[in-house]
């Protein structure tokens, strides 16, 4: 049973082929710069050097066709035929209120995804292009949509409605949706497995920290609150995103600098966050600069850790307690500095970080001391595996 997982961006395509009998990766890779000069495909096969091929890709259909051709190469020994692919799982960023779980894709589903384009104009269109391409290239292979927003559809109304005129919600769907749902779902479930306790009995705070960051409160296995909102701009300051700010700043700076709404939106999404504070968007650079005495880099790092800790505190209150805090994603999995910076604020919860165990990078680990009242973990995320599992659960096996 082999599942192909696709994540289509505006000019990129990430892919992974998994053998779900053993949940192992057979191949993964990336197509970069689709529709642009210098496009290439990268093929990463277990135990072999990465293969990189520069070739033009005018659109997503050409990119997916190239991926399928590579996966089907006889010398790789991955597939004997494309017919061996049981199903295709697509990461879809926005499902609005329509989807509270993964679904088999048909024309009705596609129409609903298209209706969500105005909520995710940068992400849903390429997701749709990928689905349409697969319909043409593999017409008999079932496809499943796995939505970033679906996991958060369990939030209570008092958590997702904003304090604005209620008609905005009724007329335009303005509410908290939340994102990174597939990651938060995987990490919360894996945390319960590591602890050897039923997920339904646990209160877990998952911290997905990377260039894009979000924190989620998972109570008894379901999301009850999350830091990203109507868009992925809300919540924590991130690599280039401002996070939550006083909304009046937008109109104030528009008037002061004569900016359009689009220009302010660009500034808040692409030129703010830790980049706006320090001049660097990569947390590795920021850590290095802070260590070298760069005051703005240190400030950016301090601000980020402080904000994560504030959300952890808020969600401990929202769930009336917390059993485990799990760090994941690029920064959460690899930065002992950030994890320590966050945990320094959490003593009131009875947490105690083990400094030696906290040195781990990119591996599952419990990094709190045995007597810590709250277990602190590093849990590498695996969104592709989660998508493959959800896909396989909805289609008949071959």
Automatic annotation (TrEMBL):
Indicate the residues that form the catalytic site: 148
Specify the pathway: Metabolic intermediate biosynthesis; acetyl-CoA biosynthesis; acetyl-CoA from acetate: step 1/2
Per its Swiss-Prot or TrEMBL entry, what cofactor is needed? Mg(2+); Mn(2+)
List the catalytic activities from the record. acetate + ATP = acetyl phosphate + ADP
PROSITE patterns recorded: ACETATE_KINASE_1, ACETATE_KINASE_2
Q: Give the record's keywords alphabetically.
A: ATP-binding, Cytoplasm, Kinase, Magnesium, Metal-binding, Nucleotide-binding, Transferase
Q: Which residues does the annotation say bind substrate?
A: 91
Q: What is this protein called?
A: Acetate kinase
Q: Which organism is it from?
A: Carboxydothermus pertinax
